[in-house]
Amino acid sequence: MTELVAQLRVEITTMIRNGEQLLLTLGIPVLLLVFFTSVDVLPTGSGEPIDFLAPGVLALATMSSAMVGLGIATGFERNYLVLKRLGATPLGRGRLLAAKIMAVMAVELVQLVVLVPIAVALGWRPDGASWPQAVAGILVGTAAFAGIGLILAGRLRGEINLAAQNGLYIVLLLLGGMIVPLAELPAVLRGLAYVLPSAALADVLRSSFGGEAVRAGASWATLAVWAVGAPVAATRLFRWW
Amino acid sequence: MAVGPGGRSVEPVSGAGPGDEAVTVSELRVRYGEVEAVQGVSFTARAGEVTTVLGPNGAGKTSTIEVCEGFRPAAAGSVRVLGLDPATSQRELSRRMGVMLQEGGVYPAARVGETIRQYCTLYGRGAEPGELLAAVGLADRANRTWKRLSGGEKQRLSLALALAAKPDVAFLDEPTSGVDLNGRDAIRSIVAGLAAEGCAVVLATHELAEAERLAHRVVIFDGGQVVADGSLAELRRGHDEIRFRSSPDLDVRALGRATGMQASRVGPDEYVIDAPPMPRLMAQLTGWLADNGHPIDEIRGGGERLEDVFRRLTGGGERR
Fold first, then answer.
1. Is B107 in CB contact (< 8 Å) with chain A?
2. Contact A2/B121, CB-based, under 8 Å?
3. Which DSSP symbol is given to B47?
4. Cβ atoms of residues B155 and B186 within 8 Å
5. Which residue of B has its CA nearest to A74?
6. How far is CA A2 from CA A5, A7, A12, B258, in A?
7. What is the pTM of this model?
8. Chain B neighbours among A 164-203 (CB < 8 Å)?
9. Can you give the residue ranges of every domain in chain B?
């Protein structure tokens, strides 16, 4: 337990010191939420843009911290042989992973504490929300995105991993129904989007917060497949140094 | 300065008593695809001794040490560290094993003080962060980040992280690489202190001077095999020589005939006679040099330098 706490402290300290990570995990979601709520350019239909945007941005925030934040940091740790050095301590891989996941969840909690009040201030009223369901969605999404982030981090060199994580972030954002509704995508891209974890999480959160889900049941199934498959693949593919 | 993790308690385990075998490598083979980097290596390292692993690049030193540390699987053969198999018991072993990587190992933005505290907690052996930093001369760098340390300071922090384990066995890879003269002395002193406290130190290095100053035992690798294993005295035995520097145009054949010994040129103006420095032979040599108008710029006799043992055994010392 002491080892886990010591490692968790290091993970959180490293995250706080990393300015780019704060920009990615908080700055961009806040910016997107405020901008697209204030400037009505998104084809969000007859409803209020904030009702569509708030769950989408929460899904984006989850993807930012669980996939990109975790993936980039872990990739550089691998590059700098931090993981190798830690591998020669009694910490063990299990506790290292647990510390990383707990650090991601701590960031997600901060994201919720920051983003939800901003969304409410911008007019979001999630009256029919099922918060337990939303939290469950975020947790399952975290597993899926963390798995994807660690697959890249465990196979690619530091800078290439950095580029790949950011590139994937953009693709999953654009095809994820987070900001742009899936209905606006061409049929081919829409078909692809349905199997992506970003679209699945956005849909699950929209459904959890009482909004209009595209295909809530199928989205839960898609997200669950990613949540199991990606971490399993990461376990098999990850190279520690 | 015999510094080290003071007050360390050595748990009783097989192979951990002073002078006992703490590391046993038997017929170890390591493969990377089709390439066999380590080809049947065997050696031992004892508690309370510094065992230096020497060898040219690609000789298989790091691969062997990484198997001992539990980082890499063996293709064949066996390795026991403190009586444990690192491949299956790395977790248990890691509590009592100090590891110093050749480079890296710390996040660039991590502060020195935080990192040493982290490792002291992870090992849980009661090492005091402040004492360790003072021991490696980094007490005034506690708030500095890794990326702002000099090369030598990074090495010293890496060593401190290995000491945080209060290790019964320590694997140190190139500990003085990039370290200035004073820093080297400090590191050597710490390593010697570690061994004096009963730790089995396995030190891989290219620095022959390091081995000459610290090693109780030297294991020389070449081409994935151990080509020599023994104390410095054992490696030098039977290889007494007289080595001198003189004019570049010296006729070594004529010198050989005059002294009745094999004389060789080993450098532009450096020569070796393969024989012990007996007074009569020294007189013959200096007399011949004087008669032929050659100066003596430098002369020494006795056992081979480790550098020459190394060159002889690894094929790097061509004589003409």
1. yes
2. yes
3. T
4. no
5. B107
6. 5, 9, 15, 75
7. 0.82
8. none
9. 21-235, 240-303
